[in-house]
Amino acid sequence: MIKVRQKRIDEDYFLNKLRPAVLAPAPEAAAEYTLEEAVAYQKSLPESKNFTKALAAFRASGKVGLFPRSGVPVAEREIELLRSLEEVGVRLFPFTTDSYTRNLQFAKAKAGLDESVKTGQMKLNGYPIVTHGVRTTRRVVESVAGAFDPRSSRAANSLVGEIAFASGMTAMPNSFFGWIGGYDKNATVEECVSTAQYLGRLIGWYAERGVIISTDCHGWLPNGVVPMYINIATQIIEALISAEQGVKSVVPLLNFQGNIAQDAGDILAAEGLFRKYLDRFGYTDTVIPGLIGNQSSLFAFPQDLGQAYGYINYTAMLAALCPLAACSVKTVDEAAGVPSVEAHMQTYRSANWIFDVVRQQNFTLASPEIDTERRMTELAVSAILDRVIDMGGGDVAVGTVKAVEAGVLDSPFSINIHVADRCLGARDLRGACRYTEYGDLPVPDEVRRYSDGKIRERELAEGRKLGYKTSIADFWTLSNGRLIDEYDKNAAEPEVPQHIKDALRLSAPTIVTGTVGVDAHVIGTKIISKVLRETGFKVAALGAQTAPEEFIAAARETDAKAILMTSLYGMAEMDLQGFRGKCEEAGIGGILLYIGGILHVGRGGFEDDRARFTALGFDRVYPPGADVETSVVNLYDDLKARGDVL
Prior knowledge:
The protein contains 26 helices and 14 strands. It has a 5-stranded parallel sheet with strand order 1-7-6-5-4. The chain has a 5-stranded parallel sheet with strand order 11-10-12-13-14, sandwiched between helices. A two-stranded parallel sheet has the order 2-3. The termini are far apart. The chain has a domain at 498-641: Cobalamin-binding domain (Rossmann fold). Helix 9 runs parallel beside helix 11, helix 12 (229-244) packs parallel to helix 13 and helix 13 packs parallel to helix 16 (368-391). With 646 residues, the protein is α/β, with parallel strands linked by helices.
């Protein structure tokens, strides 16, 4: 039975029942403030530190504010980074917490912080806000003039929000679909909604006392090549859930996928759609201070420096041409891990140059193609939201739970185990993202006809049916400076040789796959698992956020012959200390161990990664973007040499 409802949490229950449980894991940080003292502190800060006012000021001035990503573990280094960002004009500061903090693993966060201080090398992929606490974080917030917007995930979202707002931060995503899509493996949709309601009520409590804290809506990032219809619809659901709890400022975050007409159409449609549904439910006093553009986190980032600047500057150009108040761009060394201070500064100087030069021209971005894409977005998003509302009998929270369960809300390659994962997409001939498989999405007929026609155009041009491999290939194209690859009908696509598939019909060992630690990146391990199954292996797929001990337990239980791990958050070396020894203790010391991905925090060479993980007992180590079919052939050869396959 669904218990969650679209209803404001009772204040007494919130303060005396829910809050003590939220604060219990961090008694030292909780003891540094009271809510009343935090309100007084917030009111003592200058207006430049209020995110809603700062974003609205950018919008009113006609300028584009930079909204970068930042977060390093050591407070002094974070202050150094923030001041460098301020020097190049940044006034909106996202504040990334580390992955251990996001998953309430405070002992590991403290160990990583201590090691970072000791060695001078950043061992965490963000700022451990709970470990630092309110006093230290206030010092960080006070170090620059701008407004702060921290990042977390579901497990720690409520606690991070408590510490962040008490420290003077004035915005925070309340994007529970972000957790479903990319951060939380096991939580139910109902648990995610309930967690978002807590943060919404906390923000509402501040608002009732004159402190406006904004929430930016990220929605369901699809992790693949599909239109942004579900993403925008779920952003609006997040806004409605937050507004019911008293949130007075919501900010749409629009993602760019590379096709100008489609990206611009999404931007032009978004605010009207937000306003339509906020007003429909009576949240007329909830403001939208501005729209933020976002260099999509979905696609692989170029490793080549010149191409990285190109990707960044496409984002900046589109933001300058569209009615956006701010834009989030990645740094040029995004593909190398946690960016350097110099990379931040060079990136934002480049983006600012485009913002300033283009905006001064007052150029209007308009075309029939943009109008069409805008209409498709408006039709599809409205149809999706209306179905969700109808499924809940008018209750958005109930409808959301039912819609995800039914696949009415769905997106490919999501981390969460409760997602249907029945839709898929590819790019059309002009690089716009279309559905190739709709699953149970309530996309209206007019949109389907338009999308299907665009997909058929590409199929006719290339003489092939677009399918799963096309979708995966299209995922990587932006990192190579293209929207779609030129298709060579005579070229053989990467494929595992037939003799391996034939051999595995006679002898198919089990392989354990997963993403190690608290890393939420799931697409790599899903692709590997699929190719292994198609080749003929038995696969025990553990998904993302898999503890080292879970790999060992699964391997023992299934008598697996190999463990294939992925990692993209840079902290796998900490996660896997002594892993080969633990395998030996469990009686599987001879099992093959493979790992691939981004295996360090900050800049570093792959050969260094190979050496470190070989020393940890791994048999093969792969760089980011390594060919999956090659790794499967390597696996077969290694297993055959050991006599584990025929």
